[in-house]
Structure formats: C-alpha cells, structure tokens
C-alpha cells in the first residue's frame, strides 16, 4: 500500500503537468491541501517536502510554495563549462555585469584556497549573471597574476575562458569541485534577486592547468530555484 503522502505527491505532480498549477503560480496552502485531501498537516508537509526535493516547488518565505519545475536549468557538475557556453545551451537571454575587477594581495582565505603565499597577487573578478532579466548567479573568481598578467572588463563581460585559451593559449585541464548549501550573505542579498529566499547553492571550483598548476579559485553562488545540478556516472565493474 502506497503511503498517503506519496499519493498526494503524485496527484499534485499530475495536476502541475496538466497545467492546473502552472510555473510561477502558488499551489494551495497547507491548510487548503489538508482539507482537500482530508488528511493531517504532517502528511501534507511530507508531500510538499518531497515536491521541493525533486525540484517541483520552491518554498518562499512570506509567499508559500511556488511552482518552478519547468523553470529549472540543468547545470552540469562534471566538466568545465563557461557561463557563455551554458547560456547558449539554455537558449535563455543572458547578461553579465562586472561588479569588481581588481589586482590585489589575497587575504588569508584566498591564499589557502590557491595554496600561495603573501607575495603573490591575484585578479579578483566579481560578476553578476542575469538570466531572463533576473540576477541569479554571483561568480567570484580569483586568478593568479603570474599566470594571467593582464585582463580587462570587456574580457570579463564576454568569456574569461575564451581569453585564457585562445589569446593567452593556456591549456586548462581539470577542476576539483565542492558544492555546499548555506544562508546568503549580505553581499548575496545586495547583488542578487533573493527576496523571499533563505538559502544559496555555492559551487567552489579549483581549476588546474595541464601542468597540474592550480591557478584559479571560483565561488559560483546560485539562487536555488533556477538550477538542477546534474551529473552522469557510469559504474565500473571490478
């Protein structure tokens, strides 16, 4: 026998797919769903939590549960893909705003991430990513100056990887990645459209050249309702 919350979950998904609850609309409140399905509030919460976990809804503080299923973009976890390349695959209207570009001595945290000392200089590049008019990604890049002697705002607005590979002729090989979910900082709330959202997804990238030199550290900070983080894995039989 299927648990009642799974029956409710499947019914709401079906109603979404039939257009009863379109993207960006609010589904009924917990109380309304409790009465509609003649069940307990706890059962409704289990169904809503499963809908959120599977990317059908986003719980927005002060509003309720917003339908988001068809609004999500697939963000590949494996591979090194620039925002420009990703936006092209999405078929979405995308724009990059360079918030900061400076050459500086890194603080202790950045020195630790890049495994460098206080004598090294880094380029700090902070970029806001707009998709369909919404500011939903904040990219914070740190590049070793000894590897990237010069860089301009125009390059940062276009594609840093295109510049690194085709102008500087660097051979970018691989990246180590870490994904965490945390509360937004004041900077996140200032620069991104986060009204009603109380979490943010951070992808940390440690990027290496073909000679195994670590030359770039990036924090890509994403609003959680717009992306599915996807990967492909093949089992190797021992």
Strand arrangement, largest sheet? 4-5-6-9-8-7
User: How many strand units?
Assistant: 10
How many structural domains does the protein architecture include? 2
Radius of gyration: 21 Å
Q: Name the CATH superfamily assignment of the largest domain.
A: Chorismate lyase-like
Number of helical regions? 8
CATH architecture identity of the largest domain: 3-Layer(aba) Sandwich
Organism: Perspicuibacillus lycopersici
GO biological process, one term: negative regulation of DNA-templated transcription
GO molecular function: DNA binding; DNA-binding transcription factor activity
Domain HTH gntR-type: 2-70
Features:
single chain, 238 residues, alpha+beta, Arc Repressor Mutant, subunit A, Chorismate lyase, 2 domains, 6-stranded antiparallel β-sheet, two-stranded antiparallel sheet, 8 helices, elongated
Can you walk through the features of this model?
29% of the residues lie in helices and 33% in strands. The chain has 238 residues and is of the alpha+beta class. It folds into two domains: 4-70, Arc Repressor Mutant, subunit A, CATH 1.10.10.10; 73-230, Chorismate lyase, CATH 3.40.1410. A hairpin with a 2-residue loop joins strand 5 (122-131) and strand 6. Helix 1 packs across helix 3 and helix 2 packs across helix 3 (41-53). It is elongated. The mean pLDDT is 86.
């Amino acid at each position: 026998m299927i648990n009642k919350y799974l029956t409710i979950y499947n019914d709401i998904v079906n109603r979404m797919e039939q257009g009863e609850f379109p993207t960006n609309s609010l589904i009924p409140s917990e109380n309304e769903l409790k009465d509609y399905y003649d069940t307990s509030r706890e059962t409704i919460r289990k169904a809503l939590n499963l809908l959120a976990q599977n990317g059908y809804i986003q719980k927005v503080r002060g509003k309720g549960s917003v339908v988001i299923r068809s609004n999500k973009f697939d963000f590949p976890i494996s591979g090194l893909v620039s925002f420009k390349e990703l936006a092209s695959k999405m078929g979405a209207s995308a724009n990059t705003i360079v918030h900061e570009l400076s050459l500086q001595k890194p603080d202790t945290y950045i020195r630790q991430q890049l495994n460098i000392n206080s004598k090294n200089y880094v380029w700090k590049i902070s970029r806001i990513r707009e998709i369909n008019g919404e500011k939903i990604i904040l990219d914070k890049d740190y590049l070793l100056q000894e590897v990237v002697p010069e860089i301009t705002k125009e390059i940062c607005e276009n594609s840093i990887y295109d510049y690194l590979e085709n102008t500087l002729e660097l051979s970018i090989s691989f990246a180590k990645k870490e994904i965490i979910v945390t509360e937004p900082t004041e900077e996140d709330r200032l620069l991104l459209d986060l009204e009603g959202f109380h979490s943010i997804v951070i992808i940390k990238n440690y990027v290496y050249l073909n000679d195994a030199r670590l030359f770039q550290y990036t924090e890509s900070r994403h609003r959680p309702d717009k992306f599915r983080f996807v990967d492909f894995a093949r089992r190797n039989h021992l």
